[in-house]
Amino acid sequence: MIKDNQQYFNRLHVLIDALITAGSYMLAWFIQIKVITGEEIGVLPAEMYMMVLIPLIPGMLLLNSAFNLYTPKRVQGRRLELSNILKANLFGMLIFMAAVTLVKQHEFSRQLIFIFFGFNICFETLERVIIRWGLRKIRRRGMNLKHILLVGMGAAGKGYIDRIMDNPEWGYHVFGILDDNMERTATYRGIQMIGRTEDLEDILKEHQLDEIIIALSLSEYYKLAHIVAVCEKSGVHTKLIPDYGNIIPTRPYTEDLMGLPVINIRYVPLSNTFNAMAKRTVDIVGSLVCIVLFSPIMLLAALLVKLTSPGPVIFRQERVGLHNQPFVMYKFRSMQVQSKSGEKAGWTTKNDVRVTGVGKFMRRTSIDELPQLFNVLKGEMSLIGPRPERPQFVEKFREEIPRYMVKHQVRPGMTGWAQVNGYRGDTSIRKRIDCDLYYIENWTMGLDIKILFLTVFKGFINKNAY
User: Which residues form the Bacterial sugar transferase domain (predicted)?
Assistant: First the structure.
């Protein structure tokens, strides 16, 4: 049923995209020829412009398909989908411009092409936002569901159920669980254990399912070959969730050694020279712009600190940065001057008596962090990255938290994925590290831009910033 629905939905999606392409082109023609140009002399006839729609519509649909824009919404994120829309349209624009140049149509309006692709990007994006909103509505009501059988209940299986239960808009329904270690009457989050792995073949014959998820624990991998063979025999689409997610990164970096797959335990995109140079360029330009933009605020903050509390304006503290190297991080002083032992006492807590009146406001609004723009300019920090920690806490956490030291494979940041997700100040260190590791392993320039926007809207002011 899901497959039939998906085919119908894809046909409808293609039809809507075709109408959007035609509508965007005709609107661009009207604006360019009738509104902007406003005269007939030297302008190609309308019929010639409309003839372009014959190759344009199927061409854009093929590009949309090539860039995975008809992939089910369950498995494609919003950011990736927007990126694919931009890629498809930019590629289409290049082909369009090249075609007009090759046929030597000098009178064909190039500005019309730019207007068309601008409209097409906007309308295709709006269309997909509306579709996602509609799918979420109907899936939350129990319609358009994909029925899943879960084989194995290791840590990966529980993690899978937790995610789909917390996101009903994805449209997944777990029919039942097969496991050799659970009690026959056991349940997990309301999902019933319906048998053992040996019952798999019979259950697949009796029930019509859309997908099988294999989530065996590592100790049960000797069963994997047989279970996969049974699943393949049934013809039902099968996925494997490996039970080594705490070892292998979310996006494993694989190499092909003459047909032998090799998985790198850790892949850090910023270890790539081009990526590192691009990020550093953004840091230099961004920090210079921010220093100029926020200079009035920084001058006012410095004056208030000096007038309201005795001591230096700038607070300097040693932190651990890239490749475990220590550096001195700058902040506006928001606390009373303390001894070296007092500084090492621990994190600031709510209603901490050491924080000054002006300091409370600066910490709440993150104004005290602005001097770190000079750390960014010096290359000790980045605008975006894991927050740096003091040496004594690094030594403590490296023993207590698995993979903690991985965060030092990139430059620390003024803000990061953990901070925009609320893990700031006196919050869970483990969850903060999970966010840092996700950022390190999944870095893209687009993710940095997303974090910057989220910082502006909800990162500067935080209830956990004491």
Answer: 279-458
